TrEMBL record:
This is ACT domain-containing protein. It comes from Ditylum brightwellii. PANTHER family: UPF0237 PROTEIN MJ1558 (PTHR34875). It holds the Pfam family ACT_6. Residues 78-165 form the ACT domain.
Length: 173
């Protein structure tokens, strides 16, 4: 799939910039920022649309690196969850994050059989961010407490660790 799509990009005189690919079950998803001469944009869309057994969507954008992103990120964190699977668990966790104006930048979920006992364990990881200026009353410890309390009620461990762009711990309260 990646070879076929990147061939279409190259054939249209383009180049692949940032990309992200993932396999989920028997499905494969690919997102790419590509640059092609403006005169070949329609050709690329047409070629991608002709690929069999695939659904494609193309969106024209300006160069995302040519514009300074505003506002700036004021808080970044990594959340993890591990424990018993419960209906609605993703919704419950993400509702707490949304209530505190945290945006999910990345998220991954999976389940696995417990090593002993055969019960199903659920895992969730992701990164969140809040833009500058932080909302009045933004308090990371309060968010952590809410997540921990939710985890205790669902028989799982939920944590939110502060991070910054260099990967070192940061603090925001």
């Amino acid at each position: 799939i990646v070879s076929d799509i990147t061939k279409a990009v190259v054939d249209a005189g383009g180049n692949v910039g940032d990309s992200k690919a993932s396999k989920l079950g028997s499905h494969f998803a690919l997102m790419m920022l590509v640059s092609v001469p403006q005169s070949n944009g329609a050709l690329l869309k047409e070629q991608l649309g002709k690929m069999s057994s695939m659904n494609t969507s193309c969106f024209e954008t300006s160069d995302p690196k040519s514009v300074e992103v505003q506002p700036k990120i004021a808080y970044s964190g990594e959340f993890t969850l591990s424990g018993a699977d419960n209906p609605g668990i993703v919704h419950k966790v993400t509702s707490i994050l949304a209530k505190h104006d945290l945006s999910i930048d990345e998220m991954e979920t999976s389940d696995e059989e417990a090593p002993f006992g055969g019960t199903l364990l659920f895992n969730m990881t992701g990164t969140v961010s809040a833009m500058h200026p932080l909302a009045s009353g933004f308090n990371v410890e309060k968010i952590r407490d809410e997540l921990i309390n939710l985890g205790e009620s669902l028989n799982c461990d939920i944590d939110l660790e502060d991070i910054n762009t260099t990967g070192k711990e940061a603090s925001a309260a």
